[in-house]
Every structure is written in C-alpha cells, then in structure tokens.
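Justification of resources, computational component.

The compute hours requested in this renewal are based largely on the per-chain cost of generating structure records like the one below. Each record pairs the submitted sequence with a full structure-token output. That output is archived, and it is also reused by downstream analysis tasks.
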Amino acid sequence: MTTNAPPLTVRPDPGLALPRGSQRRTTLLQHNAGLWQGTFIRLDGQGHELDRFASHLEVQELITGTEDQDIPEIEAALTNGSTGAVRTMRFREPPSEMQIAADGHWSLGPSRIGPWTWVSELCVVLGERRRRVVIELAAEGLSSLVYVNEGRPGRQDPVPPAPLRLPPPTTVWQANGVSLLRWQPEADVLIDIPLQRQPDQPQLVALQWQPAWASHGARIERRHDRYGLLESINCRAPEPQP
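The structure output for this chain reads:
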C-alpha cells in the first residue's frame, strides 16, 4: 500500500521542555509519555483469565511537517507481543471524556451512561510503573475485565502467574449509598465496580494501587450521578488494604 502522506518524525527529546497545549495535555504527557512494557490479562465476568499477552506501548508527540505544529499530535501505539498487531490512537488534546489528575492518573469512558453496556478505562501511575484496568459493565453486572501491569523498560513488576483466577469479590458499603463489589487482582491492587446497576442510582468504578515500595499509593474514581452524567474527577487517598 502506498501513500502520498509525508513521513512521520518524532519530536527529539520531548522531556527537555514542557509540551504545549492545555494543562490537561501537559499533565498527561509529563507522567505518561514514553515507552511502557507490560502484560495485558483479559478476564471474564467471574474474574477468570481468558488470555494474556505481552505489550509494548509508546506514547509520543508527532511532527508531520505539513501542519501547524503549535500543538503536535499525540500518538499512543500499542503492540501486541503475541500477534505483532499494532493499535494506535491519535489526538491533539485529550478527549473531553478523559479525566486527568494532577499526578497523571487518568480515566476514559462515556460522559453519560444508561441501562446499556458501557466501558471505562482507569490508570494510575507511580513513577516508572503503572496499573490499568478496562471494565465492561452490562445491565446485569460485570461482563469482563482487562488488567494491565506496566513499567518502563526493565522496570516492570512481576505479573500474577497464569491462569489468573481472582478471589470472589467482597462487598463494600458506603455512607453515600453507592455500594461496591471489590475485586483484587494483586495483593496491592483494588478494583471497585457497582454492586448493582439500578435506575436513579449513582455509579462508580475505581482503581487503587498501594505498593509496599511507594511512600504513598494512588486511587482514581470515575463517577456518574443518578442521571447517568459524568461527575468531576475524584482522586483521593487510597483506602486501607484488606
């Protein structure tokens, strides 16, 4: 396949200067740009592993040489180590549905939910390591999870042995009326999803990581109100580990 598009070149040493654009964009790149190596583990609605693959993710700014470079495109290219397939996403500014915390944690999903199936992705980053989860929720509950353990080259933590079977989730009752099912893919990681999906009730998904080597952990929540509308980003101190 041939194309007349000019070749892509990478901005040299993007870490030497703050990226241009919005503060959201700057924060996202400061904490998440560069190379990440990891393992994707796909699980069914019961928390049982279906498959896994080694991954290589590169997040970078691109220059095409033909357009206004005041705000270069950001490209995230994910390589499946098993098949060699590459999936890419490009944008100049983070999507409006993407919530980004000051520490670089982020989540992505719909701005409005209803009785249909919806998918959210959450990511927490601590220095040279990250944890991510992709949560698919159907009307009757959890459809699937994709759990991702990532690190900079040479800095990835050990992954759970295959096949991963999560312990049965625990129920967490909250004072605000949002009750949760709590899954635990690793000893220091918690994934919270709604206990039930009912009309006129707020919904919450969350990812928490509190490794023993870190002076502090990280937790990001993605909340929708009783009308299904996305609420403001919520990052707070991690809850005590069980």
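Residues 9-235 form a domain with the Lipocalin fold (CATH 2.40.128.20). The chain has one helix and 16 strands.
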